[in-house]
Amino acid sequence: MKQTSQFTPAWWLANRHLQTMAGKILRRKQQLPVIEEVLELPDGDFVELAWTEDPDKYPTKPIVFVLHGLEGSIDSHYAKGMMSSIKARGFVGMLMHFRGCGSKPNRQGPSYHSGDTFDVHYCVDWLSKRFAQRQMGILGFSLGGNVLAKYLAEDTSNPFKCAAVLCAPLHLASCAERINRGFSKVYQKYLVDMLKDSTSEKIKLGLVNHLTLNELEGIKTLYDFDHKVTALINGFESANDYYEKASGIYVLNDIQTPTLVIHALDDPFLCHNYIDNLNLDNALVHFEVSKYGGHVGFIGGNNPLKPQYYLEQRVLDFFAGEFS
């Protein structure tokens, strides 16, 4: 079910790039104390978790599971903002760092990627056993949103009462092409440089052996990185094979959890043609399209000293309505 968003951008942040970049500046000093936990995985690797508070001390509070974006972490401005709002709403937030995105590099060569749901499945099973009687919701930003769409479609009997997919590259091939055009190349360089830094550590540790540091340094686009690194270390034949198999847009109709999807038509990271032509026939998926918002921006309000963060309000209102 597609619907028009009620979001109105702040008059002082009407531009897509200002929306995209402002949160990082406005929230640069925001502090969020967290409780850290390491979850060992069955393949010998691990993921790092960050809790807003000790979940055992608050047995009646719903738990909200958060997935960050590409090369994000608990320190990402959007993650800190959402986790802070989760706590303020009376819920317990838990962010799962994708492999290598926490304080330590992961132990193995394969990385996280847009279609990798293995760790999410394991973490959800672990949560379900540990907190069998708790109400739970789950949300994902950007890459984490695409991962979430894939997970929800794969496990239609999952324990979540609600979910939210936010600013996600649901059609990966067109998004990789879009971010390689115009000013969006600035964002691409930022992301590719971070990916190269983490991959160089894996090369030095002997976890990645199919390319050299010099070959890695020559990669300039997200497509090339996915073709030469992401695809090959994760068992895909090519970037195109990875994009086709990992894109969440193809599985939205399979989701059986009440899910809010939010997409901005001015998002400089994403392509919108596939969203315009989306054939969505699923009453449980509320696909909210906004004219404005940038990438994980959605900052409103009339006072520059008191910005309002629409994603946090909208998503947590939706979750509160689903929690009984």
Give a summary of the structure in a few sentences.
The chain is built from 11 helices and 11 strands. It is about 35% helix and about 15% strand.
Structural class: alpha/beta
Q: Architecture of the largest domain, CATH level 2? A: 3-Layer(aba) Sandwich
For this structure, the CATH topology of the largest domain is Rossmann fold
Terminal CA distance: 23 Å
- Assigned CATH class of the largest domain: Alpha Beta
Order of helices and strands: EHEEEHEHEHEHHHHHEHEEEH
Major β-sheet strand ordering: 1-9-8-7-6-4-5-3-2
**Averaged pLDDT, please?**
96
General shape: globular
Largest sheet: 9 strands, mixed
Q: Layout of SSEs?
A:
Blueprint: E1 2-4, H1 16-26, E2 35-40, E3 46-51, E4 63-67, H2 77-88, E5 92-96, H3 118-130, E6 136-141, H4 143-154, E7 162-166, H5 172-178, H6 184-204, H7 213-217, H8 222-233, H9 239-246, E8 259-264, H10 273-276, E9 285-290, E10 299-300, E11 308-309, H11 310-322
Parallel strand pairs: 1-9, 4-5, 4-6, 6-7, 7-8, 8-9
Antiparallel strand pairs: 2-3, 3-5, 10-11
Helix pairs in contact: 2-11, 8-9
Task: Describe the overall structure.
The chain has two domains: 2-171 and 248-322, Alpha/Beta hydrolase fold, catalytic domain (Rossmann fold), CATH 3.40.50.1820; 174-246, no CATH class. It is built from eleven helices and eleven strands. It has helices spanning 16-26, 77-88, 118-130, 143-154, 172-178, 184-204, 213-217, 222-233, 239-246, 273-276, 310-322; strands spanning 2-4, 35-40, 46-51, 63-67, 92-96, 136-141, 162-166, 259-264, 285-290, 299-300, 308-309. Helix 2 (77-88) packs across helix 11 and helix 8 packs across helix 9.
